[in-house]
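=== Structure Prediction Worksheet ===
Name of assembly: unnamed complex
Input type: mixed (protein and possibly other molecules)
Chain count: two
Listed entries:
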Amino acid sequence: MRVLLIEDHKPLVKALRRGLEEEGLAVDTAEDGEEGDYKARTASYDAIILDLMLPKKDGLSVLRDWRKDGIKTHVLCLTAKDTTSDKVNGLDIGADDYLTKPFQLEELLARLRALIRRSHQVKDPIIRVHDLEIDTAARIVKRGGLAIHLTPREFALLQFLAFHRGKVVTRSMIWDHLYDEYDENTSNVVDVYIRYLRTKIDKGFETPLILTRWGEGYMLRGDRE
Amino acid sequence: MRSIRFSLIVYFLALLAVSLGGISWLAYRSLAETLREKQGSTNALIESQYVTLCKEARIAFDKRLLNRAQTLGHLARSSRPLYEPLNALGAVSSPLHPQGAWNAALWAQQGVNRELVWMVRKLRMEPQKRWIEGTEIYIDVPDDFVFSADATHGQEYFLAYTRHGQMFQRSESAKNLEITFDEQLIPTFMEQHAVEHFDNIEPKPGLHLRRITIMEPVTRFRYMTFDKEWQYLRFATRPRATPSGRTEAKTQKEPAEAMRPPSGEVTIAPVIYIQYAGSTDVLERRLKDLTDDRDEKLAAVAEETREARVALRNRFLWICLAAFAAIVVGGTVLIRHGLVPLDRLSEAVSQVSAKDFRLKIDQGALPRELQPIAARLSKTLDQLQCAFDREKQAAADISHELRTPLAAMMTTLEVALKKSRTPAEYRELIEECRASGEHMADLVERLLALARLDAGAVAIKSEPVDAAGLARQCAQLVRPLVEERGLTLRVHADEPVPLESDPDKLREIVTNLLHNAIQYNKPSGIIDLDVSRDNGHVRLEVRDTGIGIAPEQRQRIFERFYRADPSRHSDTPHAGLGLAIVKSYLDLMGGAISVDSGQDGSTFVVELPADGPSRA
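=== Predicted Assembly ===
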């Protein structure tokens, strides 16, 4: 899952990036409003973390413009302003969630996960495919009752497939959502991760769940298949 | 606490009471004086009337006495002289008379029986004739002529005397009285003055009489002639102007012409003295009546005056009371009415709250006296509102400035604790935490500096400083940052510029200004730092080639947390406090800061007195 972090306080950016990446999220960052605006318009993100006090163009203006221009990406506002009127104002302009500094990283992550689920129209944090159980909140994957250990990147990939279960996702879609702006786009990195995932999910089971659509991409088995 | 309304009413009423009392007292005094004068003049009039009436009463009384006496005199003059034989008593008494010897002889011869008859004027003895000139008078007084003790006239008396004091007739009423005849004084006085004589006598104790004595010449008298035979000794009528006229012998039996004394030898007519007296009781009664009448009138006037004065006093009292009551009511209403604007102002002030500092009152509708108060209050409230807003903003700013690094630190810590890491990773994360902590500590330090400045707890040292050297040191401090940003810093401070000042504060000021110049400069910009001495002042100038400051922002940049770009976060922990601290320090050091700004950058100029802050 790929998120955009727009925040001008460098130590916070650094800490957040590390925290989010360790959760398997791909993180793009922007240090001012204009840069953040540009990135949000040019790439597709599963969620955006937006600080409201930014140089050049403040967060509320940026958000207002996005909503005006039809950009529907879910936005979590991050701010030091904690009065109710500030929150109401932010939510009214089009923020999907609101978090006041200082915050618990866990809370930020949970809210972010919820936003990502919502952006993929998924409500139940536990996604079940045949005998595979993906708990997106606890980040636990089980198949046939047995827990499977996945790296954050593998989990992110499985989650992305699960969000689109029964539908083909292309390699570029996977790339766009799982890798950040600094990752080197090599042609087979997605295939490599699919192979890792298959080894952990499908190996030893009769029904393969990760299917390959030649010339198109990959797909997590839907209910009809 | 005293109420203005109450005080005003009390003062007003006190003033009113004093003035009303004073005016009433004066008016009463003058009116009472007028009344007294009126009473005095009325009294004088009554008194003079009384005196006049008394005088008139006395005159009337005297006139009556005179009238009676004169009437008696007329009677005496008109009465027919009598001739009566002498009697023994007359003979006895006659020697008392100076020429009584003749009387006695006559009485003895003629048998005159009246008490007092004779007026001997002349005695001539001739060889053949001897005759005496004299008269016998009897006043034929009617019985009721003398009033006897009636209410109107009182008791009256009369007495008739000869010239020599011999009483020859008196009224019945005078019989028992010893009324003397001052024969020496009265005739002499009367002959000299030829007038009536009044006097008061008291013939017996308790009987006061007013007496008039008049002198009456007797015109009808006879000559009494006698010859040697004493046969014709009889009175003859005094001859008239024509001595040739014959007398009627038959009727008058007058002596013959020859017996008449020769003309030229007749001397003055004999006179008698008539005294008429009346009891002064009548007069006294009359006078007493007049006195009583006068006293009555005086008392009436006094009573009238007293009543008028009382009525006047009461009227003034009522007027005062009515005026006082009216003004108590009217004054209360007026004062209440007059204080309505104050109430409105008070109401408006009471509606001022921390949420709304506006004074909700139409200042134009207030009276002129209250307008400055309302205006001043309004202004103060506006300033308070600004200060309040600024404080609120400052609190929000402080929380924001602290929360962001705090969030960074906590996030870093959480990341660090999330899983076990290599020592290098821990070190890196802890370093980040320390950086955030330093950032916050720096910020807190600045806030504390401002708080100390506000509390007046910052002491400014004064020691010799070389401003040029200090500027070079500061430039050295910020040079790494300058180079990191790709900027150029030029210091124009070659000559030493000595100065009496606080080097720590001065360093902080210059560093702050340089940081600002770095932060707001455009890429590859230039920063100039000038130090010069000018007319007793040391001048530090920091010029940048940055974005400039809009004119409306130039005054505000020295406010706390104010930043020309409100959403601008910086790497340095200035948080919009730098210029506020600079300004506060300069205020303490007796210096000043000004800013000039245009399209191609801003210039901050610091001016400091070369010989330190004046202690005056």
